[in-house]
Amino acid sequence: MRIVRTVGVEEELLLVDEESGEPQALSTAVLALAERRAEGDSAFEAELHRQQLEFATEPRSSMSELRAEILRWRAEAAASAAEAGATVVALATSPLPVSPTIGTGERYRWLADRFGLTTQEQLTCGCHVHVSVESDEEGVAVLDRIRPWLSVLLALSANSPYWQGQDTCYGSYRSRVWGRWPSSGPVELFGSAQGYHDHVQALLDTEVLRDAGMIYFDARLSDRYPTVEVRVADVCLDAADTALMATLVRGLVETAARAWRAGDAPDPVAVGTLRMAAWQAGRSGLEERLLHPPTMRPRPAAEVVQALLAHVRDALEDSGDLAAAEEGIKALLSRGTGAHVQRELLDRTGSLRKVVAECAARTRG
Questions:
Q1: d(CA 193, CA 227)
Q2: Which of 199, 204, 205, 251 minimizes the C-alpha distance to 228?
Q3: What's the predicted TM-score (pTM) here?
Q4: C-alpha span between 86 and 69 (Å, rounded)
Q5: Is 35 helix (H, G, I), strand (E, B) or coil?
Q6: Helix (H) or strand (E) holding 130
Q7: What gap in Å lies between CA 160 and CA 94, rounded to an integer?
Q8: Which reactions appear under catalytic activity for this entry (predicted)?
């Protein structure tokens, strides 16, 4: 009997005023209320800015259970925010102008002093997917083999077209803002767990970074859990898309691990080319062409998404997730990404405030 890998998700949410849609620096109050509501067993944590908060699910083998937990914590976040006079919205950047407020922790103050405006402007919300691995050696083998496909996940999750009240012309402007960190983005092949740890140590030895928590690769070994952590995605507007993201990431991890055990070498695509793929995915989402991972040549986005599904098909069949993944991809391609939905809402209402209000209602379910 095959053991199905566990998956956990971390989602970051914006705290906004329900009437104006403007981000509100209320995380301290919301976190206290969430802890009281949960009687001390809260899944929420503070983030870099006080206009956002984060929750983490438990590791799950069942994708339906994972989706239910995501919905539960979104609802709990909304309820706690409502007590504080706000609401939550699953958008990766604020459509409305905002002056972000750095959190009060010593670590956050250090980041603000060290990185200046880069830290100040990092009011962005991502989605991180953790998938269990048996060892660091297996984890690094996975990291080496999933690199070409990460840009497709970014395109599927694109949910940040607006920045300071303006359309950026990007589907995921969050990915461009996040790329300002010196340790972010795609990385080269590591070859082994020792190669990975040597690379991380070399970055830490520069003393540019505070600690291993600032290893912001698109995918990395978690420094807290026995997992591969894929960090490339925007937070998704629809919880169903978050569950789809988790399903596809687990499929990628399992497919890569099988390839490693079979002795198949990873694709040696250059980091510069991976950056081109990530830029294209952040720019267009699913609206235009993406770079096709096996060739790194532009192809229609829907074709590239289907190539991803084909790549992980065997793993999804074995975990029982194939039908749900096919349906989820069909729905997403038909409905469009969060960025597409936001632009449609603005076209219909003419108001970014109403865009935020509608997206907040969708976040609450």
A1: 13
A2: 251
A3: 0.96
A4: 22
A5: helix
A6: strand 126-132
A7: 8
A8: L-cysteine + L-glutamate + ATP = gamma-L-glutamyl-L-cysteine + ADP + phosphate + H(+)
Nearest to 187 by CA among 223, 228, 217, 222: 217
Helix (H/G/I), strand (E/B), else coil: 54: strand
Nearest to 209 by CA among 97, 137, 114, 287: 114
Q: Distance between CA atoms of 167 and 165, rounded to whole angstroms?
A: 7
pLDDT at site 3: 76
Kindly report the backbone phi and psi dihedral angles of residue 129, in degrees, each rounded to the nearest multiple of 5, phi listed first: -115, 125
Question: CA angle, 22 as apex, 8 and 239 as ends, to 5°?
Answer: 25
- C-alpha torsion sign, points 312, 318, 324, 330: positive
C-alpha–C-alpha distance, residues 243 and 70, integer Å: 8
What is the pLDDT, as a whole number, of residue 40? Answer: 62
| Per-residue model confidence as pLDDT tens digits over 183-215 | 999 999 999 999 999 999 999 999 999 999 999
The residue written with tokens 């569950």 in the block is: 243
- Looking at domain 7-364, does it have CATH number 3.30.590.20? yes
The total number of residues shown for the chain amounts to: 365
By C-alpha distance, which of 243, 242, 56, 274 is closest to 146?
A: 274
Average pLDDT over residues 61-71: 97
Q: Which burial class, exposed, middle or buried, applies to 263 when counting CB atoms under 10 A from its CB (0-12, 13-18, 19+)?
A: exposed
- Please provide the DSSP assignment of 188-255 as one string: ----SHHHHHHHHHHHHHTTSSSSGGG--BSEEE-SSSSEEEEEEEEPPSSHHHHHHHHHHHHHHHHH
CA distance 201 to 218: 18
Assess contact for 186 and 147: CB atoms under 8 A. Answer: yes
268 CB burial (10 A radius; 0-12, 13-18, 19+): exposed
Average pLDDT, the chain: 96
Token pair listed for 25: 């620096």
| Look-up of token digits 């010593």 | 106
